[in-house]
UniProtKB/TrEMBL annotation:
<keyword id="KW-0067">ATP-binding</keyword>
<dbReference type="Pfam" id="PF03129">
    <property type="entry name" value="HGTP_anticodon"/>
</dbReference>
<protein>
    <recommendedName>
        <fullName>Histidine--tRNA ligase</fullName>
        <ecNumber>6.1.1.21</ecNumber>
    </recommendedName>
</protein>
<keyword id="KW-0547">Nucleotide-binding</keyword>
<dbReference type="GO" id="GO:0004821">
    <property type="term" value="F:histidine-tRNA ligase activity"/>
</dbReference>
<keyword id="KW-0963">Cytoplasm</keyword>
<dbReference type="GO" id="GO:0006427">
    <property type="term" value="P:histidyl-tRNA aminoacylation"/>
</dbReference>
<keyword id="KW-0030">Aminoacyl-tRNA synthetase</keyword>
<comment type="subunit">
    <text>Homodimer.</text>
</comment>
<feature type="binding site">
    <location>
        <position position="122"/>
    </location>
    <ligand>
        <name>L-histidine</name>
    </ligand>
</feature>
<dbReference type="GO" id="GO:0005524">
    <property type="term" value="F:ATP binding"/>
</dbReference>
<dbReference type="InterPro" id="IPR004154">
    <property type="entry name" value="Anticodon-bd"/>
</dbReference>
<feature type="binding site">
    <location>
        <position position="140"/>
    </location>
    <ligand>
        <name>L-histidine</name>
    </ligand>
</feature>
<feature type="binding site">
    <location>
        <position position="307"/>
    </location>
    <ligand>
        <name>L-histidine</name>
    </ligand>
</feature>
<dbReference type="InterPro" id="IPR015807">
    <property type="entry name" value="His-tRNA-ligase"/>
</dbReference>
<dbReference type="InterPro" id="IPR033656">
    <property type="entry name" value="HisRS_anticodon"/>
</dbReference>
<dbReference type="InterPro" id="IPR006195">
    <property type="entry name" value="aa-tRNA-synth_II"/>
</dbReference>
Length: 502
């Protein structure tokens, strides 16, 4: 009999969250929305247009992860459609943009300038600060050849830093050009052809680890390879000694002055046509930046910046935070890059078979927010709502009318619609961290009065009161006001609370 009862027991799934995915609470979502809106305001005023692409794309359209096996699950989350075509969740916002432009190419005014924010997905092993779903915010200009479009994107990145609340001196946009490194590699025996693509990518990945591994670690990755602390071995780019020296010398060729860096690079490029073309582009970008007042403190040339992705073809840049942040033990915390971008002229051509120039900027919203929080640069949070307690269910219409009066003054407010007496309602207000609770029963209604409780001041007063009798006699942080003036009284109470908390 007991066995049958066990068999008939309803299945209850365990409440659990998949690794690498996170729940985001109200404060996080509001902060994300503010940051995204700040970036959107910059893009919009510069004439860019919003776009929303779907979370799923056909796997072959994404390009980076083609279905080599039965299931294209390397790095992406994939499934088969009812017509047996593989679809994948987007791993960034750029590949879907390339598909959109190729699909609507003739109907779009070019350059096509768009901005977008949304979730992206990576089927990778999660870890600290490494999620399988996160939000990106992008701006791109497709169909824009020439250094002017790159200069504009670099300036947009700097303006986003300001819009996010950072001051000049707290950030810098660091710029390089992939063509410069191509010129160095050509001189080192790595051809700028399809045959040398994998070796060039290994070099890029090695340099991208410079801030984490230092020159010695990168030197090993440029050569035969490197074994890390865990015993894992990473195969190297197999450059010869001269090539390693040339690449490492290139990464340290920049200074804090863009003009000086340009002169140094002109000497390093020698006769490399591609390298000298990269220098020429930096000269053009520098000229535009100088014309609009973007000095070396906001935008610098940095030859150690390469961006790890292989699809960049020209200027590349990163937005780096410079502020001095310390952990609880006083040790310096390096935040580093919070976003980046560059020129990618080959992504749309995968679909059309013709060159379509493009450049863009992207930042991870969560990473940027974490950095802003450490710098105390986040805007103040949204105030908790005023809670209007429901003394008398027969007065619910009046309570909602009162909430509407607060709403029209821009004050967050809610009527308690749950179950429970006044004591439970006050506990609810405490858990909501409400500053003001509004009390009105039928007697107060008849008298044209409203009672307001300042819960913040009440908590302070309660801590100083020793006896229950004293509490009852003092009625701390509570006042009764006329129904006609209660909204002004709430505003004054909230303002006093803001000054006290400040």
């Amino acid at each position: 009999m007991a066995k049958n009862k066990k068999q008939n027991k309803p299945f209850r799934p365990k409440a659990r969250r998949p690794r690498g995915f996170e729940d985001r609470a109200a404060e996080t979502l509001r902060a994300e929305a503010r940051l995204i809106e700040a970036a959107f305001s910059v893009y919009d005023i510069h004439g860019f247009e919003p776009l929303q692409t779907p979370a799923f794309e056909f796997a072959d359209a994404l390009g980076k992860f083609l279905p080599d096996d039965d299931r294209p699950n390397t790095g992406v989350f994939a499934l088969q459609d009812d017509d047996e075509q593989w679809m994948s969740l987007r791993y960034d916002l750029t590949a879907p943009l390339a598909r959109f432009v190729a699909e609507n190419y003739d109907a779009l005014a070019k350059p096509y300038r768009r901005y977008q924010a949304g979730s992206v997905f990576r089927n990778e092993k999660p870890g600290p600060g490494r999620f399988r779903e996160f939000t990106q915010c992008d701006a791109d200009s497709v169909g824009a050849a020439g250094a002017a479009a790159d200069a504009e994107m670099i300036m947009l990145a700097a303006e986003v830093m300001r819009a996010a609340g950072l001051k000049d001196g707290q950030y810098a946009i660091r710029v390089n050009n992939r063509k410069l490194l191509d010129g160095i590699l050509e001189s080192s025996g790595v051809p700028n052809t399809a045959e040398g693509a994998e070796q060039r990518l290994q070099v890029l990945r090695a340099i991208d680890k410079l801030d984490r591994l230092g020159a010695e670690g990168v030197e090993a990755l440029l050569g035969d390879g490197r074994e890390d602390e865990s015993g894992d071995y990473t195969d190297g780019a197999k450059l010869n000694a001269a090539g390693i020296k040339a690449v490492l010398g290139f990464t340290t060729a920049s200074t804090d002055n863009r003009a000086d860096t340009i002169r140094t690079l002109e000497g390093l490029m020698g006769t490399s046509e591609r390298g000298l073309d990269g220098v020429k582009e930096l000269v053009q970008i520098d000229s535009i930046l100088n014309a609009v007042g973007f000095g070396n403190d906001r935008v610098a040339y940095d030859t150690s910046i390469v961006r790890g992705l292989g699809y960049y073809t020209g200027p590349v840049f990163e937005a780096e935070l410079l502020t001095d942040i310390r952990d609880r033990k006083g040790r310096p915390v390096r935040i580093g890059s919070v976003g980046g971008g560059g020129r990618y002229d080959d992504l749309v051509s995968r679909f059309r078979g013709q060159a379509v120039p493009a450049t863009g900027f992207s930042f991870g919203v969560s990473r940027f927010l974490t950095a802003l929080e450490r710098m105390d640069a986040l805007e103040s949070s949204v105030k908790p709502p005023v809670v209007i307690c429901a003394f008398d269910k027969a007065l619910m219409g009046e309570y909602f009318k009162m909430a509407g009066e607060l709403h029209r003054e821009g004050i967050r407010a809610e009527v308690f619609v749950g179950a429970g007496n006044v004591t439970k309602q006050m506990k609810y207000a405490d858990r909501r961290n409400a500053q003001v609770a509004v009390l009105m029963g039928s007697d107060e209604m008849a008298a044209g009065e409203v009672t307001l409780k300042d819960l913040y001041e009440g908590a302070k007063a309660a801590a100083a009161i020793e006896s229950n009798e004293e509490w009852k006699s003092s009625r701390p942080a509570q006042e009764t006001v006329a129904r006609g003036t209660w909204v002004a009284a709430v505003k004054a109470m909230l303002a006093d609370g803001t000054e006290t908390n400040a």
